[in-house]
């Protein structure tokens, strides 16, 4: 069962990064503009992040097996359609549909773990494996994307999901139970639409800051609409009988802090992968295959970090490991900010890759454990959805912000078209990513409970264990 849910996790996480290394080939083949190219990534992460809350509730209400099979089937179909795309519009539409299927599939993997493994050492070990797959999958995706793009073409970075889905569906039918809540299945469609609309409008407003200044009427108006949609979402959740997000679950201090931390980390990490791929191919002239291989040390570092975290968390608690990992990640990401147009892999990338990856590996398991401990079984999907939604929405917003930063810095250089100017923009984006992860470290240090005690009473475990303790 653990192998099956890790396969589901791998498909979704891999698909976020596998496209990055193929972006230059996609731009040349389909005629994307520089500003439009980021929507190959954002179309996926937007629908993914906006619908993860609904996907998490589907796992609770319709059953984990049904949700997994539906997500796998739709993921395979939309991957096939994306690989067959003939113009930018078709590819972006297919990527958006992939995000919808991923929003159903990913929460199932974490929900199955939290409802199957008891809190403590057993769940920590399962989360260590799950976290290693999540972290390494991003880097492995870049490597796989390089191999497929080099020896086949960019379309195979999408086609590869079809046989994986074909294998995973029968395994899911055999291994995943169909546990669901006893409550009558009712879905908060209005809440899901408002949450998705708020995120889409927000990211669109941030993305367009490369054309319209932050203080312009257009940008402020777009961000204002996003804020109104977010307020409307909260009002709907307070009034409906079966809300998409029961707001009381956010009284869990550990869950709330974990969502903030993963949001900030994703803001920096997603953009860093995007710019690292463009730097290797566009500045250093690497082939897609060589670019993919350059990410292998990062993958190994993430795996090493998650293994260490899985073994030490029961002894020292989550906060020291989380803060240490985030601090390493911030330092490593800032180190990336010194790449040069005439640099090389060993001189410019190997050191920061190892430091950043080990740091992120240390914090993945501990942050997930903090966010899922003490959650009631019938709200495991909701907690999973909140954590994954924070990660994916952070990735979309972070990518949009960092693209704006890089393009603005490059545009103000003396020779904007030169490799030196482009690299200067990338450097600034890496430094901002490091600052975001550093803020996450500060938030974890100051806000995460060290050894919080569960409260007695309350209507369910999610309320009783607000600020739940991560225990051995």
Automatic annotation (TrEMBL):
Gene3D superfamilies: MFS general substrate transporter like domains, Multidrug resistance protein D. Its main location: membrane. InterPro entries: EmrB-like, MFS, MFS_dom, MFS_trans_sf. Pfam families: MFS_1. The chain crosses the membrane at residues 37-55, 67-86, 92-115, 127-148, 154-177, 189-207, 219-236, 257-280, 292-314, 321-338, 358-377, 429-448. It comes from the Bacteria. GO terms for cellular component: plasma membrane. Keywords: Cell membrane, Membrane, Transmembrane, Transmembrane helix, Transport. Residues 1-452 form the Major facilitator superfamily (MFS) profile domain. SUPFAM superfamilies: MFS general substrate transporter. It is a multi-pass membrane protein. The keyword Transmembrane helix applies. One of its GO terms (molecular function) is transmembrane transporter activity. NCBIfam families: efflux_EmrB. PANTHER family: BLR6921 PROTEIN, MAJOR FACILITATOR SUPERFAMILY MULTIDRUG TRANSPORTER MFSC. This is MFS transporter.
